[in-house]
């Protein structure tokens, strides 16, 4: 039911805002405000698309979304929530403005509700999805090249990986779900290593080798897996 899905998304957004803003710092407050505005805008578009579909079809069933304008609006709203290009500008700024643990939640757990709705919705506009997916993979890859902060690098990595996931979604839902789970596992593992040693930049990464060579090696392999190098799992 679209109305309950919308309520769930709103509760999810309202629950994470205090987590983002718990550190009384201007950057954390700014990140929480940006996140709230983007998520509220996307939720409004989702509600609009579901009402429009219910007006024409008489049903609130998620699987029965068939009106073209409603599907386009919903696609834009969900990609905005996910942080796909060209609606991606908020994601690197929000992740950079929060703590590593909060950035982990944004990059992994917060992707599940909108991706679930994408997986459940039928009649999605394939050309628009494919365009957004290709744009996300290109922008995510290029923009991450000149970054030195780990949170921003992982934000652009998230944009690129979700672009691939959405592209796979057009072909197979099961493969898209597998791709998302692999991304979440790799990103969670990398964030946990960064959190354990408070590693925020590449300079800190070089010091990680002195403190713990094993963790540093694991970090290197996870980064290569996120880059999709064979024979690592990210190559799949």
TrEMBL record:
<keyword id="KW-1133">Transmembrane helix</keyword>
<comment type="function">
    <text>Core subunit of the mitochondrial membrane respiratory chain NADH dehydrogenase (Complex I) which catalyzes electron transfer from NADH through the respiratory chain, using ubiquinone as an electron acceptor. Essential for the catalytic activity and assembly of complex I.</text>
</comment>
<keyword id="KW-0812">Transmembrane</keyword>
<feature type="transmembrane region" description="Helical">
    <location>
        <begin position="124"/>
        <end position="141"/>
    </location>
</feature>
<protein>
    <recommendedName>
        <fullName>NADH-ubiquinone oxidoreductase chain 2</fullName>
        <ecNumber>7.1.1.2</ecNumber>
    </recommendedName>
</protein>
<keyword id="KW-0679">Respiratory chain</keyword>
<keyword id="KW-0520">NAD</keyword>
<dbReference type="Pfam" id="PF00361">
    <property type="entry name" value="Proton_antipo_M"/>
</dbReference>
<keyword id="KW-0249">Electron transport</keyword>
<feature type="domain" description="NADH:quinone oxidoreductase/Mrp antiporter transmembrane">
    <location>
        <begin position="2"/>
        <end position="236"/>
    </location>
</feature>
<comment type="similarity">
    <text>Belongs to the complex I subunit 2 family.</text>
</comment>
<dbReference type="InterPro" id="IPR003917">
    <property type="entry name" value="NADH_UbQ_OxRdtase_chain2"/>
</dbReference>
<keyword id="KW-0830">Ubiquinone</keyword>
<feature type="transmembrane region" description="Helical">
    <location>
        <begin position="62"/>
        <end position="82"/>
    </location>
</feature>
<keyword id="KW-1278">Translocase</keyword>
<feature type="transmembrane region" description="Helical">
    <location>
        <begin position="177"/>
        <end position="196"/>
    </location>
</feature>
<dbReference type="InterPro" id="IPR001750">
    <property type="entry name" value="ND/Mrp_TM"/>
</dbReference>
<feature type="transmembrane region" description="Helical">
    <location>
        <begin position="6"/>
        <end position="23"/>
    </location>
</feature>
<dbReference type="GO" id="GO:0006120">
    <property type="term" value="P:mitochondrial electron transport, NADH to ubiquinone"/>
</dbReference>
<feature type="transmembrane region" description="Helical">
    <location>
        <begin position="208"/>
        <end position="233"/>
    </location>
</feature>
<keyword id="KW-0496">Mitochondrion</keyword>
<keyword id="KW-0999">Mitochondrion inner membrane</keyword>
<feature type="transmembrane region" description="Helical">
    <location>
        <begin position="35"/>
        <end position="56"/>
    </location>
</feature>
<dbReference type="GO" id="GO:0008137">
    <property type="term" value="F:NADH dehydrogenase (ubiquinone) activity"/>
</dbReference>
<keyword id="KW-0472">Membrane</keyword>
<dbReference type="GO" id="GO:0005743">
    <property type="term" value="C:mitochondrial inner membrane"/>
</dbReference>
<feature type="transmembrane region" description="Helical">
    <location>
        <begin position="153"/>
        <end position="171"/>
    </location>
</feature>
<dbReference type="InterPro" id="IPR050175">
    <property type="entry name" value="Complex_I_Subunit_2"/>
</dbReference>
<keyword id="KW-0813">Transport</keyword>
